[in-house]
Each structure stands twice: as C-alpha cells, then as structure tokens.
Amino acid sequence: MMKIYAHRGNKSEYPENSLAAFQSAVELGVEGIELDVHLSKDNEMVVIHDETLDRTTNKSGEVQTLTLSELKQANLLNVDGSVSEELLPTLAEVLNLLDELTFTGDLNIELKTDQNEYQGIEKLVKELIESKPRNYTIIYSSFNWHTINRMKKLEPQGELALLFAQPLMTYQHLIPEIAPHGLHIDFRLVAQLESANQGDLPLRLWTVNDLADIRNWLLNEERNIEVIMTDYPRQALALRSELASN
C-alpha cells in the first residue's frame, strides 16, 4: 500500500508545521509526517519551513537572528491568514507530542540547510532524537547533500533521503556515490529521473495536492513509488480507501 505523508502536518486545515497540524495528521491516520527544522540564534531547533517568520506568522525577521524566546512571541497564521493561538514549535515539542499520541509511522525531518548551513545542526538533531523515546521511524532529508553526508557519518544506521528539485536533476549521477535510502522528489520530475541511478530506491513524491494527480500516482505501478506527500492528507486517505474498495 502506498503511504500518505502529511506535508508540514495537516496544513490544509491548520497552521503549517504547528502542533495542531501534526496532531490532526496523526488522528487522521497518516503513515508519515514531514516537517522542517531550522536553528535559532541560541541554537534551538525550531520547526518552520521558511528562513523567516514573515509568511507563516504575525511577526517578521530571520529565524537564525532570533532567540527561541523571541520566536515564541510569534503566532502562526491560520489557513485563511488570520492569527491563530498556535506558537512556533520546537522539534522537542513535536517529538513529545508524537510520543503522547503513540504515533507509529514515519517522521520525515527535513534539515533546512539549503540556504543557511546552520553549523552543527546535524549533531544537535541526532542527539535530541536519541534522547527521546519513540515508536516511529525517523527519516532525515535535505536539499543540501553535504548535510546528508554529515548525518551519515553521525548516524551510519540512520534512514537518509536526498531531496530533489529541478536544479539538482543534473546531479542525479551522484546518487550511487551518496548511497541514500530513498529519494524525495518533486512529483513533476519523476519522468526525468534515470532509473539506472535510482536503482531500487523508493521514491517519495512531494507535494501532490491535486486529487487527479493523487489518484494517478496511487494507481501508478511503473516506478517504485512508496510515498505521496500532500497538504491534503484527509482527502488523500479517503481517495486511497475508495480505490482500495473498488
């Protein structure tokens, strides 16, 4: 069965990358959750997609120039743009929530080092993960393949995935050298991916939001598609259930 991952949680109904969005995703029954991690000025691991607060909160400023205390003064925005009561979560808070909810799926932690290197982020994340009890699988991913190599040295047995967007397609010949466990690829680029470089690696597609596209990928048997990441987990799960019953 193809897995459904909630991209930044159930962000179609709750503020993206919020505790509410993650809780909703777990309650819907997704097999995986994807989230993004940056470092604050005081080296705290915070869960937010952008390098700045501007798009997703009622504050502004670069994450790396603000302390956790300052970041906690920002309220996340609802889907309609109104201000919610949700605050920017730390990675530790998300892990605690997933433990409380007895989540047993996959947690895909994207290390957002493609714009800012965040020196030492790999070690900090690894140490935090090791300090927390869990019944779920951790998958690390990044657009910065140096981050993947650094994490591989720190966590030789860890599940590591390369993130692919259009500018990286010319580097797909390096896949065997990096030896990831999976490829997280923009679903529109699958046809451009050379199967010789993919090998038997599972493909995890981002971000599939149109129901027609979700249906097509759920029915696809030509490539080793393991996961559909979507902003609409409720609809994707319902469609998968409908197809399975037919």
TrEMBL record:
The organism's place on the tree of life at top rank? Bacteria
According to the UniProt entry, its GO molecular function terms are: phosphoric diester hydrolase activity
Q: Which PROSITE patterns match?
A: GP_PDE
Q: Which InterPro entries match?
A: GP_PDE_dom, PLC-like_Pdiesterase_TIM-brl
Where does the GP-PDE domain lie?
A: 2-240
Any single GO BP term:
lipid metabolic process
- Quote the PANTHER family the UniProt record gives: GLYCEROPHOSPHODIESTER PHOSPHODIESTERASE, CYTOPLASMIC, GLYCEROPHOSPHORYL DIESTER PHOSPHODIESTERASE
What's this protein's name? Answer: Glycerophosphodiester phosphodiesterase
Q: Organism, per UniProt?
A: Fundicoccus ignavus
